[in-house]
């Protein structure tokens, strides 16, 4: 800033003066900022979507870029936090959308569609991540190539570490590959996202099973170990007849199917359970041509499965039998011929807060089926873990860093967190990667609680989450969410092709534009326009560089602290702060 | 082209013909149809103006000030409470020398609520530095809006065109709508010398110390003085171009008159009828209509009233603790004349109470019967 000296102008008569109080020389020497007792500060606050994302994606940032059609940069912002956006855009239950403030003005932003669009777009464009040579010497071992392991390996590799993933199966991907059917997650999407992680220098050794051809001694040569073994064991029905031929556990059924192995199921199938595996098994069985009945001991409202999955299963002709549970598998010549069940009613709430189902005496009935697929949840395989890695309530005990009770060994995913979603597993792998890197540098900062997400990009995050009521609704109008257009159910049953074709480019851009950008400046210029002291200026050229943060700066020499910028900001990205705090 | 339109539409057509570029207004009875018509002119593309919807009259005037400061021809309209809410900004418009024109429909001030005509709302703004015209007919309203822009933009002071609620605002008359081309010739585009301009930046409306403040006030008064002559010429030029002129002060049948009725606004029309009747009856009576109230046309008033024996001022307004505003000002105007005729100040028709020929006759009777007024205010029609 040049120095502005006051220029003294003496009017000898009124005739020399302008007709109105108008300056005839610069007034810049008059630093009206000295009148201020509160100052506007561009202090972004966390949008509810970012807060809700277990993988710590910077959703608001990539939606903002998508709104401008800047897909390549959006893709970078997205992929920086999560190496599996094509996967998450398809299978994540998107808690971001549940929390989205747009919900109340036209429906939540279809964030998952934007996410998968960006991944698919980048693949179509042939965008390959730059290969990277390790810059660190410490070698890290990751056991398990499910979402947690892949995420941990990816983030460590990006930080320059040589990483080796040991995978027990013949193909990488863990449950993403063996558990999720192709109609929800096409194989090529999974393959290309894993390939991109390998391109960073991550080595994946398949067919290496801990406790069989991989020992704890082998792992001791690594600077750190991340365990992401998942929960590979299916819970049993624990009823008579379970050993009969034709009882096929949900995960084994899906595994065989997904690895392209021969699977034989009967014409009439009963699936037992109300979770996502149950839905996957039921819908896969429908695609194999069977009549499918899902048996769930509680009512629809208590089902842990994603609501859309249940609805799509119903569309595909899956029958639901709520408030019923099997009591005996009936067999003839060693093969299943029926399932004896009993009706249930809901009693008092149990420890989970859900009403406990109780059998209704004398209400037994028989389902005539030839295949029974129990999908009652999974458990970890504890036989491969040493005693000094403590566990509690079915999960490995970890600190907020992901560290287990054995030094240098970290854990994540279903094995440790029990959160049970792909995105939570991705988040736990990322968190451990951040922690391992810091630990190897000799830093041990406090980590946020496991329930909170973490970001690797240096963009500031705030603990304050923007509530709908805080937005300036004078500027925000209802715009409807675009409708999903899944393939018709009859057509879906013909193959394992993807059910939902996603959104097109224009719709995705419109979704970016529909985003309120809660707590996050999106250069709407309201502050710039409304500032009565012309004390807000643009910084840098947003159209050429990302990120420019903050996009505006306040000229505190002249800002009088009126607060109009903060109150007219539609998204509450400006905070008024006591001047005294700044003078100290 | 002649159209049968209300007084309010006459305001709208006037603003349209004047090619107002920014209109910022807030609706209030009885003004509403003025801005509805202007809004539809804007919407239909008949008027190339920005119509700014605002949250209050204060904001309406503030928006007009901003527009005018940026060099746009700005227009608004309001009434009663809305005008009072504008008060601070009225001073600002004048002090900032922004030649905004406003249609002001007279309305009684609450409480109790009144939507009917009374001049107290506009007369309460007489000290704000605004030019004020009081109109008698719909034609005069339309012509005055156009003239007001010309005067305002010449002297850089804002102007109010005042009309009675309902009696004029909602009553239809045949009005000649002049040709746009002719109006354009009469009223060229607004090109202020001082305006907000990024290429020639000035700070407007900042702090002024005692060293300059006094001079700025002086200049406003100079501009008001100048406005009187400018208004006279603007009216004459209008007469030459459009065949109609209204005068600043109109003398009606004042030849040899011993009694002068002084009127403003629509009461004038009623009074004209009574004057005609009384003249026919042989009474030497005439009428002086005050059209321009600010700047106060002192020489015109004095000239019109010189030689009369008694002056009867009809005030549809009241300044509490004094008397009617016109009465007060005309009394002051006559102070320096050699023969100061007795002045009877009649307060009548408040809150839209009807003023009929019988009311006027009652005033004349009182004036004839009294050598001097019994009271500072002679109340007409009040039930006491």
Quick recap:
The complex is a heterodimer of chains A (584) and B (384). With 584 residues, chain A is an alpha/beta fold.
Protein traits:
heterodimer, A: 584 residues, five-stranded parallel sheet, four-stranded parallel sheet, 19 helices, 16% strand, B: seven-stranded mixed sheet, six-stranded mixed sheet, 13 helices
What features would you describe in this structure?
The complex is a heterodimer of chains A (584) and B (384). Chain A is an alpha/beta fold and 584 residues long. Chain A is built from 19 helices and 21 strands. In chain A, strands 4-3-2-5-18 form a five-stranded parallel beta sheet, covered by helices on one side. Chain A has a four-stranded parallel beta sheet with strand order 9-8-7-14, with helices on one face. In chain A, helix 2 (59-67) packs across helix 16 (505-514). The radius of gyration of chain A is 29 Å and the shape is elongated. The mean pLDDT of chain A is 92. Chain B has 384 residues and is of the alpha/beta class. Chain B is built from 13 helices and 15 strands. Chain B has helices spanning 7-17, 32-43, 57-69, 80-85, 87-95, 120-123, 138-155, 180-186, 210-242, 267-280, 298-305, 325-334, 357-369; strands at residues 2-6, 22-25, 50-53, 74-79, 101-106, 131-134, 159-164, 172-176, 249-252, 259-263, 285-290, 292-294, 310-315, 343-347, 378-379. Chain B has a seven-stranded mixed beta sheet, sandwiched between helices. Chain B has a six-stranded mixed beta sheet with strand order 9-11-10-13-14-15, sandwiched between helices. In chain B, strand 6 (131-134), helix 7 and strand 7 form a beta-alpha-beta unit. In chain B, helix 1 (7-17) packs parallel to helix 7 (138-155). Chain B is globular. The mean pLDDT of chain B is 97. The A-B interface holds A 11, 13-14, 17-24, 27 and B 95-97, 156, 194, 202-206, 208, 212, 215-216, 218-219, 223.
């Amino acid at each position: 800033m040049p120095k502005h000296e006051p220029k003294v102008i003496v009017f000898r008569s009124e005739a020399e003066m302008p007709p109105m109080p108008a300056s005839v020389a610069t007034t810049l020497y008059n630093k009206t900022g000295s009148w201020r007792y509160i100052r506007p500060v561009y202090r972004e606050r966390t949008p509810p979507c970012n807060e809700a994302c277990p993988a710590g994606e910077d959703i608001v940032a990539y939606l903002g870029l998508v709104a401008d059609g800047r897909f390549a940069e959006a893709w970078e912002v997205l992929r920086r936090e999560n190496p599996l956006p094509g996967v998450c855009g398809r299978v994540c239950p998107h808690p971001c959308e549940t929390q989205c403030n747009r919900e109340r003005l036209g429906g939540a932003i279809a964030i998952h569609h934007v996410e998968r669009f960006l991944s698919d777009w980048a693949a179509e464009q042939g965008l390959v991540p730059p290969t990277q040579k390790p810059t660190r010497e410490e070698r890290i071992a990751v056991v398990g190539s499910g979402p947690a392991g892949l995420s941990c390996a990816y983030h460590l590799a990006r930080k320059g570490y040589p990483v080796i993933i040991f995978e027990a199966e013949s193909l990488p991907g863990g449950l993403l590959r063996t558990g999720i059917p192709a109609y929800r997650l096409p194989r090529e999407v999974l393959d290309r996202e894993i390939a991109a992680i390998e391109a960073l220098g991550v080595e994946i050794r398949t067919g290496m099973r801990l406790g069989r051809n991989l020992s704890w001694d082998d792992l001791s040569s690594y600077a750190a170990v991340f365990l992401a073994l998942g929960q590979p064991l299916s819970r049993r029905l624990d009823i008579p007849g379970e050993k009969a031929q034709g009882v096929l556990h949900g995960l084994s059924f899906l595994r065989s199917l997904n690895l392209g192995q021969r699977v034989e199921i009967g014409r009439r199938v009963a699936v037992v359970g109300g979770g996502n595996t149950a839905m996957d098994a039921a819908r896969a069985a429908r695609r194999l041509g069977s009549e499918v009945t899902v048996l769930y001991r509680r009512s629809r409202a208590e089902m842990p499965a994603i609501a859309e999955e249940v609805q799509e299963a119903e569309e595909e002709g899956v029958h639901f039998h709520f408030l019923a549970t099997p009591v005996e598998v009936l067999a003839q010549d060693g093969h299943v011929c029926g399932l004896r069940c009993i009706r249930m009613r809901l009693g008092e709430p149990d420890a989970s807060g859900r009403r406990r189902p109780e059998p209704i005496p004398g209400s037994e009935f028989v389902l005539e089926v030839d295949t029974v697929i129990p999908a009652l949840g999974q458990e970890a395989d504890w036989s491969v873990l040493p005693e000094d890695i403590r566990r509690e309530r079915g999960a490995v005990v970890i600190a907020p860093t992901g560290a287990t009770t054995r030094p240098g060994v970290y854990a994540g995913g279903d094995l440790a967190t029990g959160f049970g979603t792909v995105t939570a597993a991705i988040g736990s792998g990322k968190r451990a990667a951040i922690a391992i890197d810091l630990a190897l540098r000799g830093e041990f900062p406090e980590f946020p609680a496991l329930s909170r997400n973490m970001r690797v990009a240096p963009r500031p995050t705030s603990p304050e989450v923007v509530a709908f009521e805080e937005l300036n609704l004078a500027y925000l109008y209802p715009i409807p969410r675009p409708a999903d257009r899944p393939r018709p159910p009859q057509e879906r049953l013909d193959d394992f092709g993807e059910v939902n074709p996603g959104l097109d480019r224009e719709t995705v851009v419109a979704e970016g534009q529909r985003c309120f950008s809660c707590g996050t400046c999106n250069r709407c210029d309201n502050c710039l326009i409304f500032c009565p002291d012309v004390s807000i200026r643009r910084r840098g050229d947003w159209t050429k560089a990302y990120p420019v943060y903050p996009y505006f700066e306040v000229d505190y020499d002249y800002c009088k602290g009126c607060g109009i910028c903060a109150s007219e900001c539609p998204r509450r990205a400006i905070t008024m702060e006591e001047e005294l705090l700044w003078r100290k | 082209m002649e159209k049968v339109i209300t007084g309010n539409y006459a305001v709208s057509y006037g603003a349209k013909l004047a090619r107002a570029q920014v209109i910022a207004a807030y609706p209030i009875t009885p003004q509403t149809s003025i801005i509805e018509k202007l809004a539809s002119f804007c919407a239909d593309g008949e008027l190339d103006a920005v119509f700014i919807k605002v949250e209050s009259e204060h904001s309406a005037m503030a928006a007009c000030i901003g527009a005018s400061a940026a060099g746009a021809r700005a227009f608004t309209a309001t009434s009663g409470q809305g005008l009072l809410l504008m008060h601070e900004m009225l001073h600002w418009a004048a002090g900032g020398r922004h030649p905004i024109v406003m249609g002001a429909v007279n309305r009684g001030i609450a409480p109790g609520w009144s939507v009917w005509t009374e001049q107290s709302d506009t007369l309460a703004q007489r000290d704000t530095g605004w030019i004020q015209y009081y109109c008698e007919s719909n034609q005069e309203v339309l012509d005055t809006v156009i003239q007001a822009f010309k005067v305002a933009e010449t002297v850089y002071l804002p102007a109010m065109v005042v009309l009675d609620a309902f009696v004029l605002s909602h009553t239809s008359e045949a009005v000649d709508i002049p040709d746009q081309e002719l109006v354009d010739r009469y009223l060229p585009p607004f090109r202020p010398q001082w305006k907000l301009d990024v290429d020639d930046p000035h700070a407007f409306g900042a702090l002024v110390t005692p060293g300059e403040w006094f001079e700025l006030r002086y200049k406003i008064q100079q501009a008001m003085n100048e406005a009187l002559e400018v208004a006279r010429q603007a009216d004459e030029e209008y007469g030459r171009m459009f065949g109609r002129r209204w005068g600043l002060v109109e003398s009606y049948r004042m030849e040899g008159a011993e009694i002068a009725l002084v009127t403003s606004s629509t009461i004038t029309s009623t009074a004209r009828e009574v004057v005609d009747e009384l003249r026919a009856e042989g009474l030497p009576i005439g009428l002086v209509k005050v059209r321009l109230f600010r700047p106060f046309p002192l020489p015109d008033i004095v000239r019109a009233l010189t030689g009369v024996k008694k002056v009867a001022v009809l005030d549809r307004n009241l300044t509490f603790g004094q008397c009617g505003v016109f009465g007060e000002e005309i009394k002051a105007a006559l102070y320096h004349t050699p023969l100061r005729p007795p002045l009877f100040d009649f307060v009548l028709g408040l809150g839209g109470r009807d003023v009929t020929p019988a009311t006027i006759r009652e005033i004349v009777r009182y004036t004839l019967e009294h050598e001097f007024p019994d009271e500072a205010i002679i109340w007409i029609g009040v039930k006491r």
